[in-house]
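User: Hi! I'm working on a homework problem where we have to compare a predicted structure to a textbook description. Could you give me the structure for the chain below?
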Amino acid sequence: MPNKPLVSVVIPVYKTPEDYLRSCIESVLAQTIQNTEVIIVDDGSPDECGAICDEYARLDKRVHVFHQANSGVSTARNKGILNASGQYLTFIDSDDMLIPDAWERVLKVFQEENCDCVVFGWNDFTADGKYPHPVSEIRQKLSAKEATFQIASDNFKCGGGYPWNKMWNMDNLRKKYSKVPLFDTVLYTYEDKLWIIEALKQLDSVVMIPDILYEYRFVPTSLTQSEEGWKHRQFNAYDAYDKILDTLSGMDQHAYEGALKFYFYFCFTDLRILYPNRKNEMERFKATKKRLVKLSRRIRLGELHKPKYIAAWIAVLLTGWF
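Assistant: Happy to help. Predicted structure tokens:
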């Protein structure tokens, strides 16, 4: 394919402030790597987002815009994946930005390391300044199995379960799976972590680099950062980790146990936080307790290794906690 783009980037768009959306698209178009396709999916945004995206498509032939009824970020990303033709695949959220030579640096790593995925750091980009989150102090090459363990067992190791700080060798994904895996459209919490874990299943290696290449607009007052946001996402997060455990079960015991520990910890912590105020949130408390008991019954002796987790697990099994 002589006209095949080198990089395909997928940008899902929904209710993005105009100045954020424009700076996002322009940071992509300004990359020092120009052989790209920019796939923007307007997820039924009720404002001017769709028209703004169409404007950039008229100005630059690399921009391809798809409009769909509002179906969620996973459906939007899947639309982008299904229309991507590049050698490499990456994502960017529509209110974030890239530094100008981000892709040039990443592609250099692909050439030097012959890997399947490159993970890079980001800045929390706020009104008060930039707060860096490097994923590694030095360049590190990990097996895909070790990367899977780190991502399944933690929210920040190996760059976390975020799609926007990673680039993938899409040719390798196609070779291993015949097509690029798609996001689970039922999930809206940890759906990206599940996708990354599924994408890594048959791959070989991941490289983490110390470079800060991504500008993440962190909004502390947003729904995802609030207590009300967690109420909305809590049980969907449990559903996601049930699917992560199902994916890892029988495939990678080390990563399975890491995911199990992480899931048990945050479910147990949710119940502990709810307990003092349980009379005011009895239905949520009961539902959380039910999920913790269900998870505890899934755990087998030897799968939790720290004494504090083992003690909590036994207490739940014996007493249902309370």
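For your comparison, note the following. The chain is about 45% helix and 20% strand. The chain has a mean pLDDT of 94. Good luck with the assignment!
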